[in-house]
Structure formats: C-alpha cells, structure tokens
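Final report, results section. Input specification for complex C-07:
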Amino acid sequence: MNSLIDVSAHRDAVEIADGVYWVGALDPTLRTFDIILSTANGTTYNAFLVKGSEGVAVIDTVKEEFADEFFARLESQVEYSEIKVIVLNHLEPDHTGALPELMRRAPQARLYISRRATSMLKALLKAGEDLKYTTVATGDHVELGDRRLSFLHTPFLHWPDTQCTYLEQEGILFSGDIFGCHYCDKRLFNDLVGDFRFSFDYYYAHIMRPFKEHVLNALKLIEPLKLTQVAPTHGPILRERPRRYVTHYRELSSPALGHGIGDQEKTLIVFYISAYGNTARMAEAVNEGASGVAGVRVSLYDLQGGEVEPFVNLIEEADALLFGSPTINGDAVKPVWDLLSSLAVVNLQGKLGGAFGSYGWSGEAIRLVEDRMRGLKMNIPHPGIRVKLIPTEEELDECRSFGQRIAENLVGLGGEKAVLDFADL
Amino acid sequence: MAKAKITFEDIEQTVNVPAGTRVIEVSEKVGAGIIYGCREGDCGTCMMHVTEGWNNLTEPSVLEEKVLKENMAGRHDRLACQAQIIGDCKVKPA
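Structure output:
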C-alpha cells in the first residue's frame, strides 16, 4: 500500500500514525533555497496535524505560496473550529507563510512558541500587545484530551527560536529543521523515497554545522526519547529506523579528531602562501617557535597546495589559526580570502588567530586578515608581524617568538593578558 | 575624554574604552563570546551577564527592558548591543 503513496496526486492529508497527519506541500521546482543551498529536486514544507479527543493541533505551516495546498490538506481532515493549538517550532517564513491566514480561519486557536520566538512572531504578524500566545520551554506541554504534546527547548538549530515538539504516546518527534533536508519526493517517507543521504548531509553541513554545540545540547534531550518517527519540516519523514538519524547527527557533531588529539593537547595551524619564499620563511619560523611549546600540536600548510574544503574541516577543529600572506596591490592575496570567506559554515568563536607576511611597499595584508578574523569572532592576542621583503635573522627570531607566544596563550602559559586600548583594536 | 575599563571574563581580556562605547563594539573586536543577532536591541540574542559594575552601564531603555523581560533575563543581564560603558565593569555571555 505504502509503495503507492504519491502525495503530488491529491490534496488530502496523509496519515502518518493514528490521528496524526502530514498536511505539508511539495516544491519540486525550487533549485536554490535561501540563496545559499542547492536543491537538486526541490524541497518540501512539512506541516502536521494531531487529532486529540479534545481538540486538534497544527504543528508548523508552509511557505506562503503553498498555503492553498496546506489548507486543502487540512480541510480534508478537520474543521477550522476544531483547531485548538498551533505550534510553531521555527518562525522562518517557509514555515510560517500560511500562519496569518490560518489564524484568521481558526481565531480560537492558541499559539505555542519558544520564548525566544516572541519578537520574531510580533514582527512576522506586525502585531501589537493584544496578540495572544503562550511561550513554552522544556518540560512544558499542552493537552489535547487523550494526547499530550510536550516541548523541547532546542535553540540555535538554526535560529535562536527553534524548538521541537514531541507527541508522547506515539513517540513522534516534530523536530522543526533538525533532521531535515531539502529533498522533494512524493513518496514522503524515508523507507520509500530515493537515496537522500547526500541531501541530509548537505543540509547538516550548511545549516546545522555552525551550531554543533547546540546540536549536542539538543541531542541530550532527544536521545532519551522513545522515537517511532522523526518528522522534520523539510524532506522525508523518518519512520524507518529514526534513531539512525539521531545517531548520525551525534557523529556529525562530535569532533572528528577526537581519537588523534589528546584531551589536554591543543592544535595550531599555520597557513601561508608566498610569492618569493619570504612569507614561507616567516611561516617556517612561526612554526618552529610554536612547535617548541609542549602540549601544542602545530601543522604548517601552503595554501597553494590544497583545496578550500579540507582546510575548512581542519580549521573547524583547530584551536589557533595563523595566516601568512604577502601584500599585493595593498591587499592579502586571493587564496587567503578564498579560505577566509568560506568559513561561515563553521564556528570560530574564541579561537586564537594571528597574521604575518612579507611585503614590498605597503603591507596592508596583515591588518586586513586580522580584521577578518575578528569579524569571525576570533581572538587576536598579538599584533601580526610585517617584514619588508627578505626577513633578516632578527626578524625570523621575531616570527619564532610570535609563534611561541600564540602557542603559550593556547596552553595558558601566556601570563596575564595585557590590558588593551580600544583605539588599538 | 573619560575612560572606562571593561573586562570580558570568558576570555579574560580587559579593554580601556572611551566612556559611552557600546559593549558590542568592543566585544566583537576582542573576540569575546557574546553572540549577536539583530544588533539593534530586538532579538535578545546578545544577552550578557554583568558580574561587576552593574551601575557602570547606561540604564536600559524601555525597549531593552521589554526584550530582556521577553527573554527571561536575570537580574543583572543586559543586551550587549544596547548597553554603553560609562565606568568599570565585568561581563560574560549570559
């Protein structure tokens, strides 16, 4: 029977468990989502309906232009007057596009949102103080007579407002964007659709990866739950071995280097690029200085010998990053910027950074690279080293000392930090 | 110009700033752990905890008070994008 599922052929709700329905929409022609994501076969906007003995809950809605499909599926199962609860797990417009109209059609329904979603809800609805809603967090729940929806506070996955909703009796987790992917398949369930692993991993890499710490916090709440299905807001509903996806999220969010680097050891990477070998010599000296500090594992890479993506993976798990760039026409060189502009998918906050390089006339690259690292929320403990043309032995000593001081900062040997002056930042 | 010191406890960094500087301007430059969202006092993402020198930040505006309340802020929590430093203080991410 399931193999005949084709949700594109009708506008009815699709029962995913007893009294629980998918009322979402397919968007098969979408090729780019939110400017940054490629969507080879489109996406879905998943919304759900839960029928209880004393009322109905709607969990999330769809993008505005798909509202007709959403309402048609909703109407195939319930009257608007039966809707008692509207849960919004995440307020991005692709999930709240049909909300204003739903509220107009079901004015008696109470909205349930996370605490952080308040300002977004008001902005979305252009509403004032008379807007009625309930903010919820982990431990809160809403009853539908014989059924209970409980809430999990899972912020920053991938907005501050995100939460999950759990239907306790059935063990169904309505997970919002967590465990989602942009994959459009009219067969709807993970055991029936095509192989969507690439899309699942791609979605994680671009949406969840910068928030790994928050993913791990959310997993602490999710892993103990009985799970028969995970129903995300995009992509297939995960009813066949749902826990496999939870486990996969834990793997994706755990440090890959965990087995190779000791708990007490820190990693420092020196990236450089060099036109005449001068910045390369500085890089080697920096490497030498840093390598002398116990407890710091230092690696040296020439940017000309690698691709951006593997370097991004290295950077994600490193504790300190140093960049060596010559200055050409008043700027750092393109391979440096290519890497530094590819780091939005990883969290660099609090990592130590530094810059160095040889220059011919002006030497702006160092300051520009430092500013970029600050923009990435990194901490720059020492001003970078600029050398005019060929580094002298004294200047190479300075580079060694620079590497050593950064490495010492990493392992807490740097002594008390000097008080900085705002004007120097 | 009057000066003040702000310490970001999470990175153990102290900065001398001209009085009136917003916390956001300094914390981003030194790489402190406060996270920013809208940067205009609306989203509550940049909530920070003031561990010392609570009175050395400008008073919260009515709008900031409202956002703090909505985000269940604690007694000495402020929005880093709004608070201006007028005397010595110590802060950390909330």
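The interface with chain B takes residues 115-116, 118-120, 123, 160, 349-350, 353, 374-375, 377-380, 416-417, 419-422, 425 of chain A (CB under 8 Å). Residues 393-410 of chain A form the longest helix (18 residues). This concludes the modelling results for the funded period.
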